[in-house]
């Protein structure tokens, strides 16, 4: 009788532990089967055309709902919507974070169709920062998914067409127009509706303008603006710029200025495509300068300079809030420990009449817990390693992007300084008093820009300075600034522009630094600085 009772209790305990084990494992399972477009929140994108703030709140609410329902597909669509809004506002780092944090969920679902938008959005973000090869990689990943799910008849051919369109747009950024045309042709080939594709025609017009075939360009661009304006589509900002480029190319300056102004109005009123605003303003500045309107030219040139700095400056209000990925598995471990403690307390209150029963229960618990913890730790270590690899890849990409931003920003400043100086010379002959006033403002603004540049480099590459000073503590601030510019691959002429010294002075400064670094004549100063690593 006692033996039967022991067996019964033993089986009950094993059943309880097995159930607990299965429940904990189930808590870790990522939704891999749920995939439904029926609940997809298209309404959010409609709202974003009128009020991006409301659309953002809508997507957040829907994302939380789909997450609780384990509907990973629609959760991904909501996160893509949030990333789209952040990108439209120029908050590229926020959009970048959203996509990176969502991507792991997409890797664990069987139907990869929702991941299409993640890859496309990631490709567009990398494209904005000039990382062409990485951008094409993710856009091609998206195209492969689109081909797998939408190449058959009676499927959504727009998804496949959009993928070809995104790759064509990237090749246009790379100025590889012939390949871009091939992808644009594919947009029409795969589209079963045979309707006019206004977005595709807009890019056709842009390409033919750049290739100098203005008759074809006008054919594609003619009459497409009303479609975007009537439907309140943000792409009208780019279309107006494309038409402005065409008018400028064929010598119709007044018409070009009209369309550039329309482009600026669309950017500001619809809060879309801020990345093209500096380019549009700069083109307006050149047109005003050609019309001998120096005041308006100077205003738009300064505006382009300010917009470029505020949009791509890593210290700007829009881009200074990078999120760190939290380690959710620490909370899982804590909950597991609470379950173990609760189970132990429950077992301690059980029948104390039989010592052997207690030993048996303890042995079963210890064996089960050790097995569970070992399994969980192995599973979590694999997931942590995967998450860490994503974090490392993201951090490396962000650091490279930030340094690229910094370099591009400095080169833009140098280029725009030449333009501003030319404008000041022109104004001097017309209005000396105005020239003196603007020159004073220019000098103050210029000094602040380079001070900001140096501050941003220190914040982005603080470990570089620490490592360099650890090896060579006698370096001065001037020496460090020269090393920073060398690390960013500026040549002697560009360094001379930034430091406001002659090219000969740069060579002298480089020789002084070489001596302080104890380099031989055959050693490369550029390679030495490039190989300075954190905690060297």
From TrEMBL:
Keyword S-adenosyl-L-methionine: no
Example GO molecular function: DNA binding
UniProt keyword list: Membrane, Transmembrane, Transmembrane helix
Organism of derivation: Seonamhaeicola algicola
GO BP annotations listed: regulation of DNA-templated transcription
Domain HTH luxR-type: 472-529
Pfam families linked to this entry: TPR_8
UniProt-listed InterPro entries: Sig_transdc_resp-reg_C-effctor (IPR016032), TPR-like_helical_dom_sf (IPR011990), TPR_rpt (IPR019734), Tscrpt_reg_LuxR_C (IPR000792), WH-like_DNA-bd_sf (IPR036388)
Transmembrane segments: 355-375
The protein, known as: Transcriptional regulator
SMART domains the record matches: HTH_LUXR, TPR
